[in-house]
Fold:
Amino acid sequence: MELKSQIPDGPIEKKWDKHKFDLKLVNPANKRKYKVIVVGSGLAGGAAAASLAELGYEVECYCYQDSPRRAHSIAAQGGINGAKNYHGDGDSVRRLFYDTVKGGDFRAREANVHRLAEVSNNIIDQCVGQGVPFAREYGGLLDNRSFGGAQVSRTFYARGQTGQQLLLGAYQALERQIGLGAVKMFSRHEMLEVIVVDGVAKGIVTRNMVTGKIESHVADAVCLATGGYGNVFYLSTNAKGCNGTAIWRAYKKGAAFANPCFTQIHPTCIPVTGDHQSKLTLMSESLRNDGRIWVPKRKEDCGKPASQIPEDDRDYYLERKYPSFGNLAPRDISSRAAKQACDEGRGIGATGRGVYLDFDDSIKRLGQPKIEERYGNLFEMYERITDENPYKTPMRIYPASHYTMGGLWVDYNLQSTIPGLFVLGEANFSDHGANRLGASALMQGLADGYFVIPYTIGGYLAGIKPGSRIKLDDPAVKATEQTVTDQIGRLFAIKGKQTPDHFHRELGKVMWEYSGMGRNEAGLKKALELIPQIREEFWNNLCIPGTGEEVNQSLEMAGRVADFLELGELLCLDALNRRESCGAHFREEWQTGEGEAMRDDESFCHVAAWEYQGEGNAPVRHTEQLAFESLHLATRNYK
Amino acid sequence: MSVAEQSIAGAEARGHGFLASSVGRKIVMAASGIVLFGFVTVHMIGNTQAYMGAEAFNGYAKFLHSMLHGGGIWIFRAVLLLATGLHVWSATTLTLDNLAARPVGYRAQQNVASTWASRTMRWSGVILAAFIVFHLMHLTTGQAHPAFDHANPYANFVSGFKVPAAAAFYIVAQLCLGLHMWHGVWSFTQTLGLSHPRYESLRRNFATGLTLLVVGVNISYPVAVITGFIH
Amino acid sequence: MSKHLNLTLHVWRQKNTNCDGKFVEYPAENVSPDMSFLEMLDVVNEGLIRKGEDPITFDHDCREGICGTCSMVINGRPHGPKERTTTCQLHMRSFQDGESITLEPWRAEAFPVLRDLMVDRTAFDRIIAAGGFISVPTGSPQDANALPIPKVNAELAMDAAACIGCGACVAACPNASAMLFVSAKINHLGQLPQGQPERYSRVRDMIAQMDAEEFGTCTNHGECEIACPKGIKMENIARMNRDFLKASITYRPAVVGGGAG
Ligand SMILES: Cc1cc2nc3c(=O)[nH]c(=O)nc-3n(C[C@H](O)[C@H](O)[C@H](O)COP(=O)(O)OP(=O)(O)OC[C@H]3O[C@@H](n4cnc5c(N)ncnc54)[C@H](O)[C@@H]3O)c2cc1C
Ligand code: HEM
Ligand code: SF4
Ligand code: FES
Structure:
């Protein structure tokens, strides 16, 4: 397998412009003769489906929820970055580019990130045009705030519901195209297989989640925008339905999977309360702008109410360790610092896995109304879940699995190693390297959907004959459909005793323990032993009531867990093979005396892309060397 | 057509005009309701002349009949008839649509915000319709009156309310009017878009005040007759 | 640790849209008050699966009150007893030990039951498709700061835009009216300068679709506003009615384009 990144030549500022010009165009009259399938209706998929339909392509869009508006992009709270420099505090395309590459600990492709920073401004324009009600100042102009890891105010936000508002913008654009008949929407359809003919993606197989019908759909190109695989940890800030199925099955069809071990842990989530816990709720990172993080200095104080611990007995450990960034230190750093504090026995709350996020100072300084204006809905949400009032007692937070930087490998055109299969949004690996900065995922999803794929897919389609689509009765289509039917049959045939969730929880425990915030060789090897055991048990003792020909949520879950049980293993394998610490990937063997991550640019300044070799065979690790021409490899330092 | 097969089309493509639309009919209901409440209020004020004795009251009746050379009252009647017709038509079609929109109800239904008045609009309305017919036959045309005298409305009024059943029905109808008005007045401000948070309490208070006034004064008539205050 | 609860659930079970449904009783034992309502149902369901019985189907996804997927009527109230709280954010501490809980799906002609507590809400999508958008093709808008928007309007737009499309308003309305949902979108877009060009066609088109979906009509009971987990106000309905009235009075049938270039 050859990993051709297709990065255009020329200076970094000119690459995208040049590439747009070099791409072949599709004759407008021919556009409607091409059909594009978009799987996913989140920021990436929704934006892509709407934009491609506006251009004139025939588009089909799929999502597993009952409505495209419910994709998990909806849950993003904090904001979206844009290099507008509306506040004149020194921001620029170059600075956003630099911050993103640095934030990703120099494990992302420069050219992609630069393009992302360039189109970030168009995204803000587009969203405002659609009616996204971003926060404004009294003069009627857009407001910004600063967000984890950035020293400029470049984050646009809509209260604590930025993702929701951006997604509604994309959703409304999508619905407009649906109303015009340009997009055919298939909600409650789960994609279970890519149809690949002669090495080229030609369609997908889906299960209608209402009737259970297995259906094939053919097209000239397929875009996967199916989100991240953070649920491999079971407990995460993702929605219950988020899954790795689409990308995993594409991987098994030949798409390389890049950097699966680059997973992000978010430092500010509400701690776990018990075994029943089904998901974790994020408290937006923006809270760290006004909240101070601390734990008691002494273990003995942990049981006391926060109000009884005097100022001198509190350890504001982020401010202490990272004076210039303080509470705004990047996610991986603050997550690990929290874990460390709890490992030292200084964690708070019933489980001892929690730290305080305290607003007392800000309330004293700015007054409660200001804090309410900024975070009112987050505070309400916190109180609803925990029954504690954060205006009075500090919030309790703890890190949780949140985002996956890894994903299917794509070239500069967002095309995977299967021609005709494009991957957008969190599902690909492209822009965030080993760690993603706050407010950059929304930007990337929309960049891919609105401003990248509409150009690059044209370059691909221009090279294939209009009307040369395969037919539904093609043997390759039937054969792929059969594999899906067989897999479902196998799941039903187990007739064991355990629920799909049970296996998912078991997997989650292993993943979190050995491949969560800190990783080491022994732990990863242990995980690589345990995961196949759980998988074995799954395939022997799973129980799914009912049939496949009806709504069957246990079946849906079982299919996803089956894939996570394989994906988790690849994740650990990748983590084991990346013998360095970088970004969110923290290998305990590679740290400085002060516990900081130690990169090994000599051996690991590359993307690791895994190629499937069939069941039972070890996958092959390919690498794409990363060249830093515009920026200098530097050690990340947030001190 | 099953809902799942619904097509998406604009108002124009659907030929969905004002009167066909639900909100259009709501507006018709509100506008006709205003005419009817306006009438009820004016009627109530006019009738206070009953307290000034037979002469004043009969004079007022005569004035009504002689306005615009006798045409005035017919214009009034036409407007009222039209308003009633539109109101009943819109109320009936909307009620049927609303019933069809919820074919299966809840086992454990809990009402939190709605009021008894809002939930009984269709029943208070029907009782009002029956009352209007009775009221006309009672005091306008006389078929439902024991001793009707075309020349003496005041006497008709007094003797009419001496019959306890008639007075009782009148009072019940007024209470229905009260319910209908209390929700209706608030409701039409909402339907016609006259809502603004600053005037929210004003809307409620206006509805309550007007209702108490109209219903209170109206009920005072049969009470005054029965207690002999008016004779 | 606070005391665990034992509850009795009366759950609407219905195999699919065409089958008849019925209530079935299930015990929910040893429920921690820290559980969310859906986590309580997860535990009940895992018990059912282990017995080989069909688990209770219910819609859910984000479990943090933002996606609008979860939807069930709990003791006669959509999303349960707590105001401004979706089912997924409702916690068991809102219930008493020994309580009976009745669970029903959203009930509306426009929301057919798919299975148990899961309904089909695609009618909402079609209403948006009919006009709930600003027509602005990708790449066409001007600079984001070119049009200042008064903060008040931006805030009012945001208030309305907070709707999560859950359908609780329809479920709560005695007439199964969707007017709170529809008016929220109309006001979100109607508050903004970008939304003005299509303001009056939008209101007509969305209402036409709403009627075609066979939702009922608002009679101003106010149940929607109380049930709405996002605090969408009935004031939106009034404003929508006003726009509709104005649109109906000033409306011109399709403008014919002139002058070939
Ligand atoms: C709680 C939370 C808060 C966040 N906050 C921020 C923030 O403040 N700023 C920021 O920049 N980023 C934030 N992020 C990250 C960001 O929201 C996501 O990375 C981004 O929205 C992903 O968008 P997407 O379009 O790639 O995927 P998604 O929005 O997850 O969409 C995936 C789509 O794929 C569909 N799908 C998935 N699998 C299948 C299948 N098998 N078959 C059919 N369809 C399928 C789904 O139905 C859905 O439509 C946050 C993430 C979370 C979880
Ligand atoms: C003739 C029989 C009548 C019937 C069947 C009837 C029925 C109804 C119904 C069903 C409603 C809708 C309830 C709602 O929107 O909440 C309504 C509203 C109303 N009615 Fe009547 N009604 C009748 C008579 C009257 C009379 C006599 C008056 C005035 C004196 C009146 C004034 C109103 C008003 C103002 C409204 C409010 C309209 C709105 O919703 O905005 N109605 N009526
Ligand atoms: S208006 Fe409220 S209740 Fe209705 S759909 Fe929107 S959020 Fe749900
Ligand atoms: S599950 Fe998303 S709002 Fe309840």
